[in-house]
Amino acid sequence: MAEQSIDKPSEYRELVWQGLWKNNPGLVQLLGLCPLLAVTTTFTNALGLGLATLLVLICSNATVSAIRQWVPKEVRIPIFVLIIAAFVTCVQLLMNAYAYGIYQSLGIFLPLIVTNCAIIGRAEAYASKNPIKQASFDGLMMGIGFALVLVALGTIREILGQGTLFDGAHLLLGDWAKVLKIQVFDFDAQFLLAILPPGAFIAMGFLIAGKNYIDNRQAEKLAKDNKPKEIERVRVNFEG
Amino acid sequence: MAFWIASSPHNHIQAQTPKLMRLVLLATLPGVLAQWYFFGWGNLIQIGLAVLFCVLAEITFLAIRDKNIKAQISDYSAVLTGVLIGISIPSFAPWWITAIGSLFAIGVVKQLYGGLGYNIFNPAMAGYVLLLVSFPVQMTSWAPVNDLIAQPVDFLNTLWLIFTGFTWDGFSVEQIRMNIDGITMATPLDTLKTDISRGLTVEESFVNPVFGQFFSHGWEWINLGFLLGGLYLIFKKAIDWRLPVSFLAGMLLFTFIGYVLSPDSSASTMFHWFSGGTMLGAFFIITDPVSGSTTQKGRIIFALLIAFLVVIIRSFGGYPDAIAFAVLLANMAVPLIDQYTRPRTYGHNQGGKS
To answer: How many interface pairs between A and B have CB atoms less than 8 angstroms apart?
Structure first.
């Protein structure tokens, strides 16, 4: 319990920073690429899978963390997989009951969340070593990070491929959401590549490149800001 | 006096990139002229558009990457990419197809990988595949050869068709592609594929006028033109003869196997050689020095692999022609091929052990 009280706010801030940007499961860890690339043909599909993954990730992290004292190290992976599978089943049944349209369009990728490495990776790397509160918060942040990447990719591919946005949102949000559909622009021909898997890879590459570009610029800026100080120190030493 | 200490190789080929590129451009002329004769102005307009967009994309990306624009533009590599794209695109395709293909070829396939000399994939073919995968309808709408067309299309009409989708006289691409009986005409390769899937034999299919007197009406002369240009390139030592020779030999071998096993559903070698983009591929596409294999043995394997893939995709695949797909697939195999065909350096034993 002692570890919990040490510098709490900054630890949570660190978790937010890690999950959303620095260690983003989609862009940096490159985990769970299979659903990431296969499902993100539209915004709605991406959001559906993102929410499902988020839910599973929070629950599994909390559970793994709660039982971490009793799990023998040798059989931890099967136990984690069982826990994750149980939550995936729950989510799948929930979606089957309340969002049947999206359940159908996600198809096999919903049960396949079990094999999503982002989830078992977090269970192994973080939840099994940290208290419940932090572990669930980590699950939340990692899940949001993953969902954001999914949604970004889904948005890009839907706009490029069909020229629409939020098409089929009513499958997820109820019938009122039909009005959300926006026709961004009208093609005579669909840009099929954006909808096909190669387009997903290319768009993903551009997203990662964009993130690295921002990081590099940030690092350069930081280096520039720090530079004058270093020179000063050198000069002082020289004269001294 | 300067005393130059240089590392090997001491004997350089004096060829310069712009010179080589100009030579290749010159060698495409016979094929392009044949294309103009059989398909009208469309292809020349497409080539112009593609060159324009390729050069614009090259300038833009070089400016972004802070490179020497003038030196890299004047090496003609972007122009050559444009010409190859323009040749491959159907003559009546709308202008934005050419634009997207050219921008992708130069921007993503060439410049993002580091510019000339660093691209893994052949830019022209990658651009072509992007278009073929994304816009299958427009990209398979090849016009029939001029003398099979019911409604001849002159320069102004072609220009109008490419930019607005309709000719000056108000015909759409689909209407132009119909013959007098109102049946849309496809390319020979496409026709053969459809006919075989309908249960006809090759011989029954060959009655169709798109096949003409020899193998494929019009296309045989275009291929002959590219063959001529290619032989000139070999004569000038601009390309390695191993690539086209082993490619064509490979096609002979694989089509012969198909012909022996099932003569009714496999066309002859001559048909495969002289239809579609075979000769363009053999002499102008697979000889790309950047994305192809660099060792002598590797080049033979590379060309045979492409020939195999072309025959397989043409016979069993979903698309009528396959040069572009085959070249891209083989491009991926190039690092492996080069790794295992590294020539023995003098003084070393086989297998890299000294």
So the answer is: 18
